[in-house]
C-alpha cells in the first residue's frame, strides 16, 4: 500500500474561502490503492462530482470496453472518509501499455486544495513503475498541463465516442 501525506505549506493545506461546510485540515490525507470494499464509496463520489452526465463521456465508454488496472486505481482518504479517487483503464494503444485516466473525482467541498493533483502524481508514478508508456485523458488543458500533459497528435488515439480534440491530452511516461 502506498501512502502519501501532504507536506506543510503545500497548497493542499490552504483553507478555501468558499463553501458552507467546514473543511477538514489535510495533514491526515492518505493516498492508497483502491480496495474492493471502496467501490460503493467511489461510485457515490463520482456521482456527486459529475452527476449523471458522466455516462455520456468518451472516457466512460473506454471504461466499458477495456479493463480497469486495479493496481493503479487509488483513493484519497481523510479519517473515516474517501474524499477523492482516480482510476486508470488499459487501452489497446502502444501494445496495451497505454492507459486512459478517469474518472478523477474529488468531493466538491474539497476541490482546489490539491487532492486531485496528488492523485494524478501518484497515478503517473505508479504507471511508470509498472512499465506503462502513456496516460491519455479528456480534460481541461490548463489543469493538466502543469502535471506534464500535452495535446495529443492527430491520429495517435481513437476514442469510442466523440471528444473535443483540444481536450484530448497525453502524458508520455
UniProtKB/TrEMBL annotation:
Disordered: region residues: 1-25
Family matches, as InterPro entries: Acyl_CoA_acyltransferase, GNAT_dom, NAA80
SUPFAM superfamilies according to UniProt: Acyl-CoA N-acyltransferases (Nat)
Any GO molecular function: N-acetyltransferase activity
Keywords noted in UniProt: Transferase
GO cellular component: cytoplasm
Residue ranges annotated for the N-acetyltransferase domain, each copy included: 29-173
Keyword Transferase attributed: yes
Keyword Transferase: yes
Pfam families: Acetyltransf_1
Protein's recorded name: N-acetyltransferase
Amino acid at each position: 500500500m502506498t501512502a502519501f501525506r501532504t507536506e506543510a505549506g503545500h497548497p493542499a493545506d490552504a483553507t478555501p474561502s468558499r463553501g458552507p461546510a467546514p473543511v477538514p485540515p489535510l495533514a491526515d490525507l492518505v493516498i492508497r490503492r483502491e480496495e474492493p470494499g471502496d467501490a460503493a464509496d467511489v461510485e457515490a463520489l463520482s456521482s456527486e462530482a459529475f452527476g449523471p452526465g458522466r455516462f455520456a463521456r468518451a472516457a466512460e465508454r473506454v471504461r466499458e470496453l477495456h479493463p480497469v488496472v486495479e493496481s493503479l486505481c487509488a483513493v484519497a482518504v481523510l479519517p473515516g472518509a474517501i474524499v477523492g479517487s482516480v482510476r486508470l483503464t488499459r487501452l489497446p494503444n502502444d501494445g496495451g501499455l497505454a492507459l486512459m485516466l478517469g474518472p478523477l473525482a474529488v468531493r466538491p467541498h474539497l476541490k482546489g486544495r490539491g487532492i486531485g493533483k496528488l492523485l494524478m502524481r501518484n497515478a503517473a508514478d505508479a504507471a511508470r513503475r509498472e512499465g506503462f508508456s502513456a496516460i491519455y485523458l479528456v480534460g481541461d488543458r490548463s489543469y493538466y498541463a502543469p502535471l506534464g500533459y500535452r495535446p495529443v497528435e492527430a491520429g495517435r488515439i481513437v476514442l469510442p465516442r466523440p471528444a473535443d480534440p483540444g481536450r484530448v491530452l497525453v502524458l508520455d511516461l
